[in-house]
């Protein structure tokens, strides 16, 4: 009887730890054969294995979709007789419809199940990234409207997919923007694998839309040819007509409407690529958060508020840089829209960069040194959003660095002989250095624990000491002495670090404003890297078009993402 009792009790005891004083016959019992032993010791391990298997399967799905779409796009580029742009649009339209169907199912089915969303990631879906998503999404919708309008004007030369594809694009953008705005923080706890596959399918679709936008210069070439014919017509050299193919001649019933759609399409084109990149980053965080159970952090979360108190030089210098940058941008745009930018405008544009980039690099280097001098603890808590931020900073920086190196090779190989070539070369070198130093400063700042005010620190120390008092039963007098010691020590350290905090805030705010103006200028039409003609002549139109459309959206995304990272460094300084 006693032996049976021991055999019934022993497995549960073994799930925790085997006692030192075990009976002699206990060693002969094979506890791994018991169901309770097998399962109580491996529930968490099985959960982790299931999560990894789901992530692997959904990742393979996305990889296959991306490879299939890339094969279609590459075939269109190298053999457009077999695979045409319409074929690529059909594939992407099918993918977008599938994504829209999954998003609707998630909103109406998955999320409404019991215990579907028990946790939300407070770090995911920051206001600034969701706001930029709405901005880029709105501009992408306007881009699709311009595409539809342009195709409708010349409908005799276009297929029905020229109107159907941007119409599906509008539906896809609206559905995805609504989904990410309201549910980017979700840590879904049901239907893990299906949700992961849906998220990865949406990510793959956005990547293919970005890849097509980067490599497809068909409409740009067509619009440029039409604009050249307009110039020739105004000069009395040629009639205004455009030949779609060898047999069909296309005439425009209203040239004003055509010009509006053409200008709108060219101006809004970069926003679509930005929207795809932003959506991919938010969707990836949601994918990492599927099935995630958020526990209490090791360090208490401190909600820092944005305040301008105590900063003077950073806002002053940054505002000056923004005002000068807007003036330079307006001069450039006036010249570009009238007779085309000339050498004097390019000299002004690059000279502005040659003054601003060294100041930004110096500020980032000084900020990194201050971070090294600080004694603040590193935040080592697992955070998918911060991990993605680091990857995005490093990945998006490749756009600027890559274009800069291509420009350096083109200029050096062409043997620069005038002032403009020397300015472009200096601009490329300084841009590489500034990007690297700013990345180091931001990534280092994101991994620092926020520095709390003395009153908040004293309050937390009081709570901790009260708990210790309950456990150790110390006297009230001893507790008060401990609190005073901690408070005086912290106030001393706080006053000692005050100049470092001010310096970090000044540098961060200055870099925020500088990145804003460096985001505005290329986003709204200032593209001297494509319009100066040097690299375009060296690499050829199509090659340089692909390089710029690959690097420029990443460059704009990097500036926008840097603003968010620098603001976080500012408020936690």
Automatic annotation (TrEMBL):
UniProt topology in membrane: Multi-pass membrane protein
InterPro entries (alphabetical): Otopetrin
Cellular compartments annotated: Cell membrane
GO cellular component: plasma membrane
Listed Pfam families: Otopetrin
Chief place of localization: membrane
Superkingdom of this protein's organism: Eukaryota
Skewed-composition ranges (Basic residues): 7-17
GO molecular function: proton channel activity
Region (Disordered): 1-24
Transmembrane segments: 56-77, 89-108, 128-151, 163-181, 193-213, 266-287, 308-332, 352-370, 390-413, 419-443, 507-526, 538-558
Protein keywords: Cell membrane, Hydrogen ion transport, Ion channel, Ion transport, Membrane, Transmembrane, Transmembrane helix, Transport
PANTHER family, per the entry: PROTON CHANNEL OTOP, PROTON CHANNEL OTOP3
Similarity section: Belongs to the otopetrin family.
Protein name according to UniProt: OTOP3 protein
Species classification: Eukaryota, Metazoa, Chordata, Craniata, Vertebrata
């Amino acid at each position: 009887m006693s032996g049976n009792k021991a055999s019934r009790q022993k497995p549960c005891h073994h799930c925790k730890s085997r006692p030192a004083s075990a009976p002699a016959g206990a060693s002969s019992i094979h506890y791994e054969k018991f169901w309770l032993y097998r399962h109580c010791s491996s529930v968490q391990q099985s959960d982790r294995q299931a999560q990894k298997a789901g992530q692997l399967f959904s990742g393979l799905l996305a990889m296959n979709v991306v490879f299939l779409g890339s094969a279609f796009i590459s075939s269109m580029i190298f053999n457009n007789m077999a695979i045409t742009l319409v074929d690529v649009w059909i594939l992407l339209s099918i993918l977008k419809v599938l994504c829209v169907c999954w998003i609707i199912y998630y909103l109406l089915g998955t999320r409404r199940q019991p215990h579907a969303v028990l946790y939300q990631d407070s770090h995911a879906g920051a206001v600034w990234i969701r706001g930029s998503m709405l901005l880029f999404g709105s501009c992408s919708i306007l881009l699709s409207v311009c595409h539809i309008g342009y195709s409708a004007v010349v409908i005799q030369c276009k297929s029905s997919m020229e109107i159907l594809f941007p119409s599906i694009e509008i539906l896809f953008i609206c559905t995805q923007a609504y989904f990410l705005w309201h549910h980017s923080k979700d840590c879904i706890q049901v239907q893990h694998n299906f949700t992961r596959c849906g998220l990865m399918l949406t990510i793959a679709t956005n990547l293919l839309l970005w890849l097509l936008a980067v490599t497809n210069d068909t409409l740009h070439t067509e619009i440029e040819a039409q604009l050249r014919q307009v110039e020739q017509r105004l000069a009395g050299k040629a009639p205004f007509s455009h030949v779609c193919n060898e047999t069909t001649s296309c005439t425009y019933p209203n040239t004003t409407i055509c010009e509006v759609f053409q200008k709108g399409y060219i101006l809004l084109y970069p926003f679509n690529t930005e929207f795809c990149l932003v959506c991919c980053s938010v969707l990836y965080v949601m994918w990492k958060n599927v099935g995630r159970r958020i526990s209490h952090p090791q360090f208490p979360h401190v909600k820092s508020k944005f305040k301008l108190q105590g900063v003077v030089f950073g806002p002053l210098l940054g505002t000056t840089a923004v005002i000068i940058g807007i003036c330079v941008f307006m001069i450039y745009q006036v010249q570009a829209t009238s007779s085309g930018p000339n050498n004097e405008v390019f000299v002004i544009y690059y000279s502005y960069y040659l003054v601003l980039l060294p100041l930004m690099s110096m500020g980032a280097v000084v900020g990194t040194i201050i971070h090294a001098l600080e004694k603040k603890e590193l935040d080592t808590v697992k955070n998918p959003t911060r991990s993605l931020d680091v990857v995005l900073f490093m990945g998006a920086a490749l756009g600027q660095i890559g274009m800069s190196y291509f420009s350096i090779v083109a200029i050096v190989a062409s043997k620069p002989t005038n002032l403009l070539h020397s300015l472009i070369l200096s601009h490329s070198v300084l841009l590489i250095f500034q990007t690297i130093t700013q990345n180091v400063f931001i990534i280092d700042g994101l991994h620092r624990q926020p520095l709390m005010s003395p009153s908040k620190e004293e309050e937390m120390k009081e709570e901790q000491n009260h708990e210790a008092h309950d456990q150790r039963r110390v006297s009230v007098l001893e507790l008060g002495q401990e609190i005073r010691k901690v408070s005086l020590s912290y106030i001393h350290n706080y006053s000692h670090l005050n100049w470092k905090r001010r310096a970090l805030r000044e540098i961060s705010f200055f870099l925020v404003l500088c990145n804003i103006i460096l985001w505005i200028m290329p986003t709204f039409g200032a593209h001297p890297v494509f319009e100066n003609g040097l690299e375009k002549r060296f690499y050829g139109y199509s090659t340089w078009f692909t390089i710029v459309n690959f690097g420029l959206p990443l460059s704009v995304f990097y500036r926008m993402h840097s603003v968010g990272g620098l603001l976080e460094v500012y408020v936690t300084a």
